[in-house]
Design a protein that fits this description.
The chain is α+β, with helices and mostly antiparallel strands. Helix content is 39%, strand content 16%.
């Protein structure tokens, strides 16, 4: 059961702070050890190729990844483009940076946002107008504010996550764009413009608006107005790739030593369905670095790149589509993309007219592809654009310890599944805790260092921490002596962490639920054991007919409740492990569980209450009385979890 819970927790896309008296607003500051400046290398093809040859082959082998492509552009030209490993392991087909197509996942969003800015440039879209003005269906009003295109571009539309029908391996499951959007409008869980919550739905909605105002199907629009002008000859948003491109797509792997998986298709393809070669992604970077190139006017490109919205001032912010990944005192714009098997990211350094792109076609051991990707950019920046920062400040130890204690608690990601039964996945790993290390500093295991060990956080300004061994920063927003949100440099532009109310905190709910499940299982399984012992020794229980009936019913419902919880675990495990299951194939199981859950949990609470009342009326039987209270508490907890995490609900959207 523990392994099953852990497996479900690993599949979750979803991430109660306790208030402590706030220390002085302006704490004393001391200075840390000076930072050693790196040797500057020449950014030329020979040096970059030598550096990549020393890093990428080892990284692929160490991470059990199949292949990768890396492209570096500078001053309007491709400086180098390299393929490493295999596009297909079985056939030993090597990665060709010019021809091999990689699935770009969420990097596809940059094509959509570029198209939006083209429409803004033509006066067909107003960034601050209600998006309903451009739609043939309505995004329902919520919080008294409309959703605007600017909200969509900065992932502040307030939408919760959507999973049903998002991905499939079968092209028949991919509907037209309007159908994909209209069949399930996600709930808005935040007021628009206030909270970053990454949204595939929001990006796809923007693409549909471009389709409507331009009069062209969006895939055709992208081909004609983005791919063709940029010279991207081997790129497509179509989920049914042209025959000329199908044979060029790299195979995707969990591990390079394993078997390839089926190609993932995406119903929200403007947000995650592009296939492109490394060379084409280089051309896309060149266009944006050249003040829009053939895609946008310079003033439009600057508006897109330079309009920065920060949720927490000390951290990176969100541009219009791109997000900041600033490093070594230099501005960097970026976007990443991940499927189960393809992992990509591009970075632009506008001031230096330099771009870096990489993609891998395997997740690798322990999903090491993400760490390889991050380290590649950090090492690239340190080698060619080292920091000129001589020293950094540090908050004094006493204040730092006090601030760390304020951070201790359980948090949830703002990008999450909130209103459907999948919220229950938080119970098996969807919430995240901040604790204290042995020195009284922050301990946040959800953001490990490259080797998997916890980062060592140093507070360099009030409520701003920096990784001791790297550029990563963590910062919190504090109001009235309480932490109300925090973020990481890598994800704060589009997602934050917020404290979980104590009554929804899995720090106590998860162990209590496991204890309740154990109590119910023991109660049910002990029933036949006790019956056999009584029969063996001819002992008749001293109970009235009513007591005997309630005893049997309480044991029956205890067994049913235990089976119910296991059934939910198995159902969700199947659902999140296979895209095909998210397109309606398991609706019969969902409906069955949704009907059974309130009946069984209410029945359990009623019968255990009755059993407790009757037990406490009887003389003696001390253990039975105490155990009856354990059963009532277990039943009450299950009913609370069922309601709070939407297992007691109706509907097949999620």
């Amino acid at each position: 059961m523990r392994a099953l819970c852990k497996g479900i927790g690993m599949a979750i896309m979803a991430w109660a702070g306790q208030g402590i008296a706030q220390p002085p607003v302006a704490p004393p500051v001391t200075t840390t050890t000076p930072i050693v400046q790196s040797v500057v290398h020449s950014l030329d093809k020979a040096d970059v190729d030598a550096w990549l040859d020393g890093f990428m082959p080892y990284a692929l082998q160490r991470g059990d990844a199949a292949g990768a492509v890396v492209v570096v552009v500078r001053d309007g030209q491709i400086l180098t483009q390299r393929g490493f490993g295999y596009a297909d392991v079985a056939s030993r087909r090597p990665v060709d940076p010019d021809k091999t197509l990689f699935r770009q996942a969420s990097i596809s969003k940059l094509v959509t946002w570029t198209a939006v800015m083209q429409m803004v440039e033509q006066g067909k879209i107003d960034l601050d107008r209600d998006v309903n003005a451009y739609l043939d269906f309505k995004i329902p009003d919520r919080f008294g504010k409309p959703v605007t295109m600017r909200n969509l571009m900065t992932h502040r539309g307030g939408f919760e996550e959507v999973q049903r029908g998002l991905n499939s391996y079968d092209i028949k499951d991919i509907p037209p764009l309007d159908v994909a959007l209209k069949r399930q409008i996600p709930a808005r869980i935040f007021p628009p413009g206030t909270t970053p919550a990454y949204s595939n739905y929001g990006t796809t909605l923007a693409a549909y608006i471009v389709q409507r105002v331009s009069g062209e199907p969006f895939d055709a629009y992208a081909q004609r107005h983005i791919f063709a002008p940029a010279g991207m000859v081997r790129s497509s948003l179509s989920q049914r790739l042209p025959a000329s491109l199908q044979a060029l797509v790299a195979s995707g792997y969990g591990r390079g030593s394993g078997k390839p998986t089926r190609l993932e298709l995406n119903s929200f393809w403007p947000a995650g369905g592009m296939s492109a070669s490394g060379a084409d992604m280089g051309r896309f970077m060149i266009a944006h670095l050249a003040d829009g190139g053939a895609l946008l006017r310079p003033d439009t490109a600057h508006r897109m790149h330079d309009t920065i919205l920060k949720s927490i001032p000390a951290l990176n912010g969100m541009a219009l589509g791109f997000y900041e990944q600033n490093i070594n005192g230099r501005r960097a714009l970026s976007h990443a993309g991940d499927t189960l098997t393809f992992h990509s990211q591009l970075w632009l350094l506008p001031g230096e007219k330099v771009g870096l792109y990489m993609s891998m076609n395997a997740a690798g051991t322990d999903k090491l592809s993400g760490a390889i990707r991050s380290h590649l950019f950090d090492a690239f920046a340190d080698r060619y654009f080292p920091s000129d920062r001589k020293e950094e400040d540090r908050v004094d130890e006493k204040t730092a310890r006090a601030h760390a204690r304020m951070m201790v608690g359980t948090y949830n990601k703002t990008r999450r599944l909130e209103t459907s039964f999948l919220k229950a996945m938080e119970v098996v790993g969807g919430q995240f805790s901040i604790g204290l290390d042995a020195q009284g500093g922050l301990l946040f295991k959800a953001s490990p260092a490259l080797g998997g060990q916890p980062r060592q956080w140093i507070e360099v300004a009030p409520f701003v921490w920096r990784d001791r061994d790297g550029p990563m920063r963590l910062a919190a927003q504090v109001e009235n002596g309480r932490v109300v949100r925090f973020g990481l440099d890598s994800s704060s532009p589009y997602m934050l962490f917020e404290p979980v109310p104590w009554y929804l905190s899995t720090s106590w709910i998860s162990p209590a639920l496991l204890a309740s499940l154990a109590a119910l299982a023991v109660t049910f399984l002990s029933w036949p054991v006790v019956a056999l012992i009584r029969r063996r020794y001819a002992v008749r229980p001293v109970q009235s007919v009513a007591q005997w009936r309630v005893y049997r019913l309480s044991r029956t419902f205890a067994g049913l409740a235990a089976v119910l919880l296991v059934s939910w675990l198995l159902f969700v495990s199947k659902l999140v492990s296979d895209f095909s299951s998210m397109n309606g194939e398991l609706d019969w199981a969902l409906i069955t569980l949704q009907v059974a859950t309130p009946l069984i949990l209410l029945g359990l609470l009623c019968t255990t209450l009755c059993y407790a009342v009757l037990s406490w009326r009887r003389p003696g039987m001390r253990f039975a009385k105490i155990w009856s209270l354990v059963l009532v508490a277990s039943a009450a907890l299950l009913l609370w979890v069922g309601g709070a995490f939407h297992l007691i609900a109706w509907g097949h959207n999620f």
